[in-house]
């Protein structure tokens, strides 16, 4: 059976709704960090958009203070690692800071092992 | 009366304690954003330092989720404003996001007034 094609208006509406509803916390974080004040934009509109995406990023796992803070720390931690370690940790999408620390420690230990073997 | 000079060891200790205890939440935020993984540094040490300064920045006003999130939004909001507006808002050290929005709206309105007058 072939699905009946939807009118273009419905398609656009569906896409717009899915774009906002279907974003993962990580996508909300990226939106939060990339929002800009447009030429004609008003600061309070920017602040609303920032608050909206920040809440969807940081409250996804609950509203406990430590959980929220660990997410802010996790973002900064990943951005401060050496580039290859940072990419490797990010690929694993660690759900917690402790997991990210473990991944970074493992990757750096493995890399220094490779360097030592190469030097022998 | 002249104060007896303290031994150099005590001076260094006092300075080190004051450096950590006496930092304002804003200084802890700056430390949080500027910490780096040193050459010989271990990721878990960096994560500890990040967690420490992030907690001192974000928990200074209480551990309510909305209060914490508003601080993260405030930082991002100020960094996204036009440079002069951003500096002006930062000079006033707004304690809340709402105050920062008001300051930014006022500064931009005042600036556009100046531009309009200049153009006449």
TrEMBL record, chains A, B:
Residues 29-106 form the SCAN box domain. Pfam families: SCAN (PF02023). It comes from the Eukaryota. This is SCAN box domain-containing protein. It comes from Cyprinus carpio carpio.
